[in-house]
Amino acid sequence: MHLRPSLLIASFIFVSAHAGGSASAAQDSELVNQGRLLAQSMCSDCHTLGGQTRSDHAAPDLAAVGAMRSTTTLSLRVFLRSSHANMPNLILENVQIEALSAFILDLGGK
């Protein structure tokens, strides 16, 4: 059986896209896991992580933050680079911001 070049190219693109998709999903999962570790070590003194409720935490739950309609990767990047009156002045590396953003969005179901 001889495949036409256009069909062969289309098949290659399809397989490449799906192979890259699983690699991308694995990378996203790893980024979310890195963000979870950062949040546990840097944020959990004030924020709850993932729907837990505690009366001694005045800061919002990060799942609620992630679920907000206005919360996007861009809005989190800007927020995490800015100083805020009620938060410690954290100086985060770009990779830390990306990981925390991925974790918060994942908690919010995005």
In short:
The chain has one domain: Cytochrome Bc1 Complex, Chain D, domain 2 (Orthogonal Bundle).
CATH C-level: Mainly Alpha
Rg calc: 19 Å
End-to-end separation: 45 Å
Helix content: 55-70%
Give the structural class: mainly alpha
Low-confidence stretches: 1-20
Overall number of structural domains: 1
Coarse morphology: globular
Question: SSE string, helix = H, strand = E?
Answer: HHHH
Number of helical segments?
Answer: 4
CATH superfamily label? Cytochrome c-like domain
Description:
This protein has 110 residues and is mainly alpha-helical. The chain has a single domain, classed as Cytochrome c-like domain (Cytochrome Bc1 Complex, Chain D, domain 2, Orthogonal Bundle). 61% of the residues lie in helices and 0% in strands. It has four helices and no strands. The chain has helices at residues 5-42, 62-67, 73-81, 94-107. α1 (5-42) crosses α4 and α3 (73-81) packs across α4. The protein starts with a helix and ends with a helix. 15% of the residues are buried. The model is unreliable at 1-20 (pLDDT under 50).
